[in-house]
Input
Amino acid sequence: MKKLGFPKSRRLTRQYEFLRLYRTGRKVSSEYLTVYARPAEGRQGKVGIVVSKRVGGAVERNRIRRVLREAVRTNPNEILEGTDLVIVTKNRALELRRPELVEQLLRLLRKSEAS
Output
């Protein structure tokens, strides 16, 4: 059976990894999400998802995180293999249903040239 998780090797986990993307990554925004993208210097790309405490309660934040993680996991063709990404949600993301949130993410990835 194929593992469907989101392995730690594909996640940004360190603060310096996020800061490097904030400083040197290409930034693309919509009213719901902001994406920072940067080439991954000869290794497999990683993804970090940021949902501030200003975005709803814990249940809503976790739902958004799960939806975005699932979108990244199930759309590998939409994301360049050697690209690091940070996806930052905005408060208005709570207004979107799952398919709309995924579409917003994919639109921003195409715009950032990370796909």
User: Anything to note?
Assistant: The helical segments are 15-24, 58-74, 98-111. The chain has a mean pLDDT of 89. The chain is about 35% helix and 20% strand. The longest strand covers residues 33-39.
